[in-house]
Amino acid sequence: MSSSPIANHRALRSWVEIDLAALDRNIARIRRYLPPYVRHIAVVKADAYGHGMPSVILRLLRAGVDAFGVANVQEGLQIREQDVTLPVLILSPVLPDEIPLLFEYQLTPFVSSVDELAHLQSWACGHERIISVHLKIDTGMGRAGFWYEDPLQEEVKKYLSGPWIRLTGIATHFSCVCSDKTYTKLQRQRFHDWLGHYGCDAGIWIHESSSFALQDDWKDSPCNAARIGALQYGVGPDSQVPFIQALALEPILSFYSRVSLVKMLPVGVPVGYDAMAVTRRPTRIAVLSAGYADGISTSASNRAEAMIYGQRFRVFGRVAMDQAMLDITDAKVPIHAGDRVTWIGRDGENEITANEFCYWSNHIIRECLCSISARVQRVYK
Ligand SMILES: *Cc1c(COP(=O)(O)O)cnc(C)c1O
Fold first, then answer.
1. C-beta of residue 71 within 8 angstroms of C-beta of residue 38
2. Residue 309's domain spans which residues?
3. What's the predicted TM-score (pTM) here?
4. Bridge pairing between strands 146-147 and 131-138
5. Do 256 and 343 form a contact (C-beta atoms < 8 A)?
6. In whole angstroms, how far apart are CA 281 and each of 236, 247, 267, 270, 272?
7. At which of 196, 218, 247 does a domain end?
């Protein structure tokens, strides 16, 4: 992540604080929840959901996860550069031109088609290198994977039983974990039926669940691995899910910026781009040192709240690229340039959760974490 020569917090315009000890506690709680034989595939795509891959990876390694899941070859390579020898799974389809890198960095693709296998086979055979793959089954997501109703082609079986391509996992992915439990159940059933039909060797990783779809009951499940992203970072869905509440995970990320200027404006002044707000009273404005290029969505304009000295204030006017304004007329304590503004996190008695921040931004939870941009320095506690 951005390593800045600015050592002094007070000179940072916007920054994120990551509590790595809380990450450790989250991982311990998740692993206690999983049966011991279930492999923990730690999903760290998109710079570990905006938390900064290098530091997060080190902690996850120490916590004893079994594999990493990333979105693409670039991210996989970044993990290998940290001398990680665990399996690294590429969760989305690989481009034909990325194939040599898969071999070079020993990354494990999810395969969804005969064409992908043919490409892998031809490279493997030509260079005498073996590759391990996970087969992706589409049980109703309509995205990557072999469609569950289609018979598996003979070529697929041929490639997988040949000397070059080693089948080490079979997986599916659920599309409606939070919105439709019945559909998730149906997808699970389709996956289990598929596995029942084709069978699979012992030792192959079987996985279907992501964070919010972890099951309570593994007894009758063919699965022996889970891909876990969001939960590690202590973020949950909007609605209450009993097992997630019981896990008592802690948010590990706080997002801050600063007041850069305080000024008084008279009545009737249009404030910010497109005059989205107009003062209705003599108004004290705090100009802030962060905007949409830092991850504060323009949807937060005139809507979101942020805290200074534990007091909530509303965004006044449109959020701009590098700046936003708060109406601080009702501040209980004097506010000055340089004071800290909290977008996500605790401030005194008050808290703005990542879910609330997302609500203001019209984002889903993972989206708002990934939107905190690279120029926002990550500071680790
Ligand atoms: C991102 C991703 C995950 C992790 O999802 P979370 O809900 O954040 O745990 C799991 N599986 C696949 C295929 C993914 O793309």
1. no
2. 253-380
3. 0.95
4. parallel
5. yes
6. 40, 47, 5, 12, 16
7. 247
Domain assignment of residue 115, yes or no: yes
Ligand 1 touching residue 91 (CB < 6 A): yes
Decide if 1 is inside a domain.
Answer: no
Ligand 1, pocket-test mutation among 30, 174, 227, most atoms within 8 A of CB: 227
pLDDT band at 2 (very low <50, low <70, confident <90, very high): very low
Q: Is the CB of 88 under 6 A from ligand 1?
A: no
Q: Provide the domain count of the chain.
A: 2
When pLDDT is cut at 50, 70 and 90, the band that residue 298 belongs to is very high
Q: Are residues 314 and 190 in the same domain?
A: no
Is residue 30 lining ligand 1, measured as CB closer than 6 Å? no
Has residue 332 been placed in a domain?
yes
Q: Which atom of ligand 1 is nearest to the CA of 144?
A: 13
Tracing tokens 């079986």 back to the chain, one arrives at 157
CATH number at 320 reads: 2.40.37.10
Strands 377-380 and 131-138, how do they pair?
Answer: unpaired
Question: According to the model, what pLDDT value does residue 216 have?
Answer: 83
Element (H, E) at 166: strand 165-171
Distance of CA 8 from the midpoint of ligand 1 (Å): 36
Say yes or no to pLDDT of 1 above 60. no
Dump pLDDT digits (tens) for 265-282. Answer: 999 999 999 999 999 999
Specify the pLDDT at position 217: 86
Residue 288 tokens, joined: 């802030």
140 lines ligand 1 (CB under 6 A): no
Assess whether 139 and 81 both reside in one domain: yes
CATH of the domain at 80: 3.20.20.10
Give catalytic status of residue 219 as yes or no: no
Averaged pLDDT score across all residues of the chain: 95
Does residue 159 carry a catalytic annotation? Answer: no
Residue 6: inside a domain = no
pLDDT in tens, 106-138: 999 999 999 999 999 999 999 999 999 999 999
Q: From the candidates 148, 273, 309, 380, which is the catalytic residue?
A: 273
Give the number of the atom of ligand 1 that is nearest the alpha carbon of residue 43: 4
Is residue 254 over pLDDT 80?
A: yes
